[in-house]
Amino acid sequence: MGKNMIVAQSGGPSPVINNTLRGIVETARQMDEIDTVYGGWHGIEGVLKEELINLSAQCPEEIALLRTTPAAGSIGTCRYKLKDHQNEDFDRIIEIFKAHNIGYFVYIGGNDSMDTANKVANVARERGLDVCGIGGPKTIDNDVGDSEFQLIDHTPGYGSTARYWSNYVQMANEENNGSCPADPVLVLQAMGRKIGYIPAAARLADPNREMPLQIYLAERKVSIDQIRHNVNEMLKEHGRAILVVSEGLEIDGLEIPEEFKVRDSFGHVMLSSSKITVAQMLTNALNDKEKFKLAVKGAARCNVSGTHQRNDIIHASNVDLTEAYYVGQKAALLAAGGEHGYMASILRADRENYTVEYGKAPLPEVANSERHFPKAWISECGTDVTDEFIKYARPLIGDNWVSVPIIDGRIRLAKLNMSKEMFADQKLDAYIPQADRS
């Protein structure tokens, strides 16, 4: 009989994160090296609290339905960061591993999650435990890895959010085209903090550049005067304009005051959750008749997309879903093979005829890495992306719609058994994670 595995999730979810989880569980069921797979309820916090869901005992049909169940409601996620000085937390994790015969720890998430996976597994090994630590990549931002795309070509979750934006901009363009006499300027805000892969995906809606579309990435700082000039030039030519802006876009002359920003436990600014957004500030500035006059009659309006960018299974990419599953499968295979200290990875095998292979990237190289949008993929004018980006991103969004099971008009989502009997027996005293103590 093998040792047990804990799999947990961290950070913002994605449309395909549960398919990575499914890949891990279904593959582990076939491995003699892995006995029971437990899910940490709400990430590393659930591990600390000894809240471990038995995933191996779940109904196989429900596990299969994780394919088209988006976000992270299955086993939950968290934004709890393990910091080096939190010795009690690390001690507690070691106690959990010992109490439940854990030999494998897989953490699904982004940059900070890979750091957590690396720290936890290394501490366990330093304490004499034979624990294999593996990372499962996840982030809609596509910012895990290196800018040369050698560690990982793209992360599961990005392709689906890119597809969402491709579809969304097409529909927004139809409305803008119809309502432009009253609302000639439409400002759309995309997620991604200070990484431009998501707003860049707006160009996939219009690869031949037929729409009056401008894209402003956080990597290219701009002034409010430049934007006003760009907008009026487009209004003079087309009579309307659509602007897609990064939520982390810095606009000279239009800064968000610090007191209006909301931060998560990692210290990251939650830009879409802040008290005022870049899109709203920009829209207000374009409608400020004392300082600016639009080249045509009417006003600017804005739409700030929320979390549906990362939980909309209807707009998910079939390519992304498939790759997310095989990344989970690769993570389980790495664990069973004892290949400690790696993140499962997607590598592009053929750039002309899109195919991928699944490999591994050293966790220390990935942990806390941050891939930036290549400067070479930003147009010289700064309001567009190049055809090289389109070539990179187009295969990721796929072609066909996802087949989502419907019963009585409602999406049939996975329903894991969350009864008390499905949780591992708690063998240790109750524990409050260090950062949660007042």
UniProtKB/TrEMBL annotation:
Positions annotated as active site in the UniProt record: 141
Listed pathway(s): Carbohydrate degradation; glycolysis; D-glyceraldehyde 3-phosphate and glycerone phosphate from D-glucose: step 3/4
Localization: Cytoplasm
Residues engaged in binding Mg(2+): 111
Protein name: Pyrophosphate--fructose 6-phosphate 1-phosphotransferase
Chemical reaction(s) catalysed: beta-D-fructose 6-phosphate + diphosphate = beta-D-fructose 1,6-bisphosphate + phosphate + H(+)
Keyword Metal-binding carried by entry: yes
